[in-house]
Design a protein that fits this description.
The structure is a single chain. This protein has an 8-stranded mixed sheet, sandwiched between helices. It has one domain: Alkaline Phosphatase, subunit A. The chain contains 14 helices and 8 strands. It is of the alpha/beta class and about 375 residues long. β3, α7 and β4 form a beta-alpha-beta unit. About 45% of the residues are buried. The chain binds zinc ion (ZN).
């Protein structure tokens, strides 16, 4: 092989290692902390009360300044956003605005008037196992929307069926929910799983956001995170092959969170932890051309450069699994929210490529 051919081969290798940064990740665990306002989590971390949240901050790529949907700071619309990668309103939105238990048989699609694909569709249609562990009954919306009778026909490769969610579990006791989740992961792992913790939200409505009751609930969630970290870092099935993405649906102030113009309602965390993710990185610093730190503002979807949103999650998670974005998604549809550090293989290839480029250049000089 001549020098030029070697260079081309190496550049192709470089391209492939650089583009498939999710290579090696087989499992993605999405965690939504209901009512997890950034300022409350930050202050508890500063008091050393949340060691496992802190593990995500120091061992992953993180921001305390993500945003939820522009128009809605309530639970169910923001969870549909976390599954579909769409905002709530408008022709491109998922249009689910209700925050109560859905009526029997009602789906995201029947409400919208057309099928609304989610992260479960893409993962399942590509042969991956999917699950959801929820702690509020209203999450039956996802079970109903993505179960066999209502899910879309699988037109991707082998037909994996219309049921996009292999398992849906709802348990208002989040400790036993976590136990069931870990037991299920150990017996038949989910490649993509959505885990929802209602505790801080319930405590916020009852005792106020930032109250002792709220802080105790957040510390309980930190304990669940610890159990999940134990599984992911000690079990050979998951070790080095699992990413965790954590965000929230909204924060809160006093006893409420329904004001979309209130900074304490719309300022939420967003973090990614796992192989290839730059440890301790600020997500805005890693994405300084594609995302804009909004300060204390509430940018609309029409802004050319968007803040990081909870709706970035599904397309990022699919990218980590080396899968395309959710059909119809608008937030992070380009899958350009970067979380990686170049792998050692990538760095080696990059080094060799530059060496060869120098030799080629030197050869031409002769
Ligand atoms: Zn909520």
């Amino acid at each position: 092989m001549n020098v030029k051919a070697s260079l081309i081969t190496l550049l192709l290798l470089l391209w492939s290692t650089g583009s498939a940064f999710g290579q090696g990740i087989q499992y993605v665990i999405h965690i939504s902390v209901d009512g997890g306002g950034s300022s409350y989590i930050q202050s508890l971390i500063n008091d050393n009360a949340l060691p496992n949240f802190n593990r995500l901050v120091t061992g992953g790529a993180w921001t305390f300044n993500a945003r939820d949907d522009y128009d809605y700071t309530v639970t169910l619309p923001n969870h549909v956003t976390q599954v579909t990668g769409r905002g709530v309103e408008g022709v491109d939105g998922h249009n689910w605005t209700d925050n109560g238990d859905p009526a029997a048989g009602q789906t995201i699609h029947s409400n919208k008037g057309s099928y609304v694909a989610g992260v479960f569709d893409v993962a399942h249609d590509n042969g991956l196992r999917t699950g959801m562990y929820a702690s509020k009954t209203k999450f039956s919306l996802f079970d109903t929307s993505y179960k066999a009778v209502n899910g879309a026909i699988d037109l991707t490769g082998v037909d994996n069926g219309r049921g996009k969610l292999d398992s849906y579990v709802c348990d208002e006791n989040t400790s036993t929910l976590t136990d069931s989740f870990i037991t299920a992961m150990k017996s038949d792992p989910f490649n993509y799983v959505f885990v929802h913790y209602a505790d801080p939200d319930a405590a916020g409505h009852d005792g106020g956001w930032g109250s002792d009751e709220y802080n105790t609930a957040m510390i309980a969630v930190d304990g669940y995170l610890g159990r999940i970290f134990d599984m992911v870092t000690s079990d050979a099935v998951f070790k080095g092959k699992t990413a965790i993405v954590l965000t929230a649906d909204h924060g809160g102030k006093d006893y409420d969170h329904s004001d979309p113009t209130e900074p304490l309602d719309y300022t939420i965390p967003f973090g990614v932890w796992g192989p290839g993710v730059t440890a301790g990185a600020d997500l805005y610093a890693l994405n300084n051309t594609s995302r804009l730190d909004p300060g204390t503002d509430r940018p609309p979807y029409s802004d050319a450069v968007q803040p990081i949103r909870n709706g970035d999650a599904p397309d990022l998670e699919l990218q980590l699994l080396v899968l395309p974005s959710v059909p119809g998604s608008t937030i992070n549809v380009a899958q350009n929210l970067a979380v990686p550090e170049p792998s050692s293989v990538g760095l080696l290839v990059m080094g060799l490529a530059s060496l060869l480029a120098c030799r080629l250049f030197a050869g031409r000089q002769k």
